[in-house]
Amino acid sequence: MVQQDTNIRISVVIPVYNGSATVCRAIASAMGQTWAPYEVIVVDDASTDDTVQVIEAQWKGDVILIQKERNAGSSAARNAGMDKASGSHIAFLDADDEWHRDKLRVAGAALTSQPDIALLYHSFTMRDIDADVLPDKPEVISRTFVQLLPGNKIAPSCAVLVNDAAFRFDPGMRHTEDYELWLRVAYRNRVAYMPYALTRIFRMFTSGGGISSARWKMRKGELVAYTRLVRLNPLFVCIVPALWAWSLMRHLMKMTGIKGIVKQD
């Protein structure tokens, strides 16, 4: 691994709960980056399987392991890792996902050239991405707060966030808590997108309209995220009903199998 000569230092936060079968694969993809992570922090959310033992057997001394005494969900686990992180930026990686080996190099190059980016994200795929060749100078496309409103397209494993104590997931939300944070960050800060699949996921990303047995719970989380826009600006009370209607329409069309204009999911 090579550490670039840059002020960008990316801490990796991996939350895990009963993930003994996949967590070492995720850790390996973080540790095997061509651009070394500043640190890798694994937060065990009170697993009841042998997750901790598996991590310690293979990665003891290489990663920072935080063990929570009580299961509190992915939001609280990610927050615990963020509180511990000392890098300038934080990259999230779920325990059942993996990255392209050049993910941090590409992200680091983008953040070095455009240091005003608070939230950087990219695409994901379910195919093997090992052989994908990535550019030395990645394309970076700005995204506005308004462009993020139609629905959550940012999987946690695809996000790199500036390390700011004000940016934390809401532990009270168990569904779509990531979307609530992305909107909060985007309202007053710069967000950018890189059009590369740098994350391979091994299960469908359950956005507000994603394919999931918990589809309605995810949709309700999206509605909560929209409702909380009023906290950012009281005037948003005027647009929340329209966003609710849009979200519920997408849900209905998904459930009935109707396609057409619903492209956000």
Polypeptide structure, described:
By secondary structure, the chain is of the alpha/beta class. It has one domain: Spore Coat Polysaccharide Biosynthesis Protein SpsA, Chain A. The protein is 34% helix and 20% strand. The chain is built from nine helices and nine strands. Strands 1, 2, 3, 4, 5, 6, 7, 8 and 9 form a nine-stranded mixed β-sheet that branches. The termini are far apart. The relative contact order is 0.14. The C terminus is likely disordered.
Features of the shown structure:
alpha/beta; Spore Coat Polysaccharide Biosynthesis Protein SpsA, Chain A; 34% helix; 20% strand
How would you briefly describe this protein structure?
The chain contains nine helices and nine strands. By secondary structure, it is an alpha/beta fold. The chain has a single domain (10-201), classed as Spore Coat Polysaccharide Biosynthesis Protein SpsA, Chain A, CATH 3.90.550.10.
**What's the CATH topology name?**
Spore Coat Polysaccharide Biosynthesis Protein SpsA, Chain A
The H-level CATH homologous superfamily, spelled out, is Spore Coat Polysaccharide Biosynthesis Protein SpsA, Chain A
Instruction: Write the element-wise H/E pattern from the N-terminal end onward.
Output: EHEHEHEEHEEHEHEHHH
Tell me which CATH architecture applies here. Answer: Alpha-Beta Complex
CATH class: Alpha Beta
Distance between the termini: 36 Å
Largest sheet: 9 strands, mixed
- Low-confidence spans: 206-213, 261-265
Number of helices: 9
Helix proportion of residues, in percent?
Answer: 25-40%
